Amino acid sequence: MIVRAPRVRLADPNLVLQSMASSTDPSPLSPDAPCPCGRGPRYADCCGRYHAGPLHLLAPDPESLMRSRYSAFVLDLRDYLMATWHPDHRPDAIGPPEAGLRWLGLEVKSVRLNGPDAGEVSFVARSKLDGRAHRLVERSAFVREGGRWLYTRALDAA
Ligand SMILES: [Zn+2]
Fold first, then answer.
1. pLDDT under 50: residue ranges of the chain
2. Which CATH number belongs to the domain containing residue 70 in this structure?
3. Quick check: helix, strand or coil at residue 1?
4. Run of H or E including 126
5. In a domain, 41, yes or no
6. 20 alpha carbon – ligand 1 mean position (Å)
7. How many Å lie between the centroid of ligand 1 and the Cα of residue 79?
8. What domain range is 123 assigned to?
9. Per the structure, how many domains does the chain have?
10. Cα dihedral sign for 129, 135, 139, 142?
11. What pTM, to 2 d.p., does this model score?
C-alpha cells in the first residue's frame, strides 16, 4: 500500500523573499539619528547596538532591554521584539502596527533589580493615533536566561 504525503502548498516565492527582505533590513534608521528611546544622542550607540551587530540581543540590563524594545516598536522591528520576549510569554506573532500610529517618547520612571537575573522597569510610553494621544503606563518584568535579558510580561501597575 502506498501512502501519499499530503500535498504541500508552496507559498508564493516572491512573497517569501519580500518578507525576508523587510525583516532583515540591517539599517532601519540612520546610525547618527537620535535614538527613539531618548537616552542616546546616536541611535547606533544606544538601542541600535542591540538591534544588530556584535551586541545583537545582548542588552546588558533590564532598562537597556526595555528601551531597545521601545525603539524596536518605533522602528517596527518585529523580529527583535519576538527574540527578546520570553518564549513562555510571547505571542505566536506580532502584527503590523496600526496605520498612522506615531510613537512620541519614552520616560523610564523606575528600575528595580530583584537579584542578579530578574528586574522590573516602570515606564510611560506616549503615542498618537488619529489625532488622539495615548499613554501606555506599564511595569514590565524581565529575567535573564542564558546570559540574555528577556521581557516576560506586564505586572500590575506599581
Ligand atoms: Zn535607545
1. 6, 8-26
2. 3.10.450.50
3. coil
4. strand 118-129
5. yes
6. 25
7. 17
8. 31-155
9. 1
10. positive
11. 0.81
